[in-house]
Specification:
Blueprint (H helix, E strand, L loop, with lengths): L9 E2 L6 E3 L2 E6 L5 H17 L2 H6 L1 E8 L10 H14 E16 L5 E14 L5 E13 L2 E9 L1 H7 L12
Parallel strand pairs: 4-8
Antiparallel strand pairs: 1-2, 2-3, 3-5, 5-6, 6-7, 7-8
Length: about 180
C-alpha cells in the first residue's frame, strides 16, 4: 500500500499518514474498486472518441455534477452534458492521445472517496472545415457505486478559443 499525504501536518511514526484534527488522512493507489473505476473512466473517454454520447452518459450517475466543461462556471447536469457533447460530436471528431489514468482513494479528508485522475491530449477536428487543434486536458472523476458522480475538467480555454480563430480584444484603457 502506498500512502501519500495531501496536506501539511504531523506524521505518525506507525504509518506515515498525516494527522489533522486527530484523524489520519490516507491516500492510496491500491483499493478494491481501483480497476473497475479506472475502466469506467476509460469507457467514458473511448465513447467520446467514438462520438457515442449515450455511451458517455451511461458511465455517469443520474445526479452527476460536472464542472469546467465548456468554460462554464456553473455545474452541468447529465442532460446538459448530453446536449454539450451531442453538439460537439456532431460538429467535431475527438481523438485522445497520450492519455494516462490514475485511480486514487482518499480517506478522512474533505475529498474522501474513490477518484480517477486522467490526463491526455484531445485532438479536435472540425468535420466541415478539417481544422484541427490539440487540447491538453486533466479530468478528475469521483466514482461511487459503479458510476461517475462528479467530474472536474481542467483545460486551457484560451487555447480552444484562439485555435478556432477567435481573438480577444482587451478593454480600452480608461483615461
Amino acid at each position: 500500500m502506498l500512502l501519500i499525504s495531501c496536506k501539511n501536518g504531523e506524521e505518525t511514526k506507525d504509518n506515515n499518514a498525516e494527522v489533522v484534527d486527530d484523524k489520519a488522512i490516507l491516500t492510496t493507489l491500491e483499493f478494491d474498486n481501483a480497476e473497475t473505476s479506472l475502466q469506467l473512466v476509460q469507457n467514458y473517454v473511448q465513447a467520446l472518441q467514438e462520438g457515442d454520447v449515450d455511451k458517455m452518459n451511461a458511465q455517469l450517475d443520474e445526479k452527476v455534477v460536472i464542472l469546467g466543461l465548456g468554460g462554464s462556471l456553473d455545474s452541468l447536469t447529465i442532460a446538459d452534458h448530453k446536449d454539450y457533447y451531442t453538439t460537439s460530436t456532431s460538429q467535431n471528431t475527438h481523438a485522445i492521445s497520450q492519455d494516462l489514468y490514475l485511480p486514487v482513494k482518499v480517506e478522512n479528508n474533505w475529498n474522501e472517496g474513490e477518484w480517477v485522475l486522467s490526463w491526455g491530449t484531445n485532438t479536435i477536428t472540425n468535420k466541415e472545415s478539417g481544422n484541427k487543434f490539440d487540447i491538453p486536458y486533466h479530468i478528475v472523476s469521483m466514482v461511487e457505486n459503479g458510476k461517475i458522480v462528479y467530474m472536474r475538467y481542467f483545460y486551457d480555454m484560451l487555447n480552444v478559443v484562439s485555435k478556432q480563430g477567435y481573438t480577444i480584444t482587451p478593454p480600452e484603457a480608461a483615461e
